[in-house]
Amino acid sequence: MESLDCPSCNEKIEVTWKQYWRSGLGYYHCPHCKDKSKFQTKPRWVQFSSWALQFFALMACYASFTTFGFLGSVSLLILIPVFLFDKHLDTKFGNLVTAT
Could you tell me the maximum CA-CA distance found in the chain, to the nearest angstrom? Predict the structure, then answer.
């Protein structure tokens, strides 16, 4: 399973989809010590490329929806692999640091 290390207690934090969606602002809460940690991605190009991919996927969904109406909403399925890829990048290149 994909996990990150807590900087306070050094326990592994399993990155579930619930935690992934809660960490939209870049903060994870350790279930063991209840400490709040800031998420960082190294190298920075990984984070920026992930944001760009999400932006372009959302714009493609919007363009499809405005062009084809309700049938264009099927294009929202594009977002599934985009978010799967983003979650994978978070656990592969990301680490947690103590929040200030």
Answer: 51
Burial class (CB within 10 angstroms; exposed 0-12, middle 13-18, buried 19+) of 21: exposed
Give CA–CA dist 26/37, Å, rounded. 8
Give how far the C-alpha of residue 30 lies from the chain's centroid of Cα atoms, to the nearest Å. Answer: 17
Q: What is the span of the domain harbouring residue 75?
A: 3-98
- Using alpha carbons, select from 83, 88, 98, 7 the residue that is nearest to residue 51: 83
Cα four-point dihedral sign 84, 89, 94, 99:
negative
Q: What are the C-alpha distances in Å from 47 to residues 4, 65, 68, 86?
A: 16, 27, 32, 9
Q: Is the pLDDT of residue 72 over 80?
A: no
| pLDDT tens digit sequence for 13-49 | 888 888 888 887 788 888 888 888 888 887 888 888 8
- Count: domains in the chain: 1
pTM: 0.76
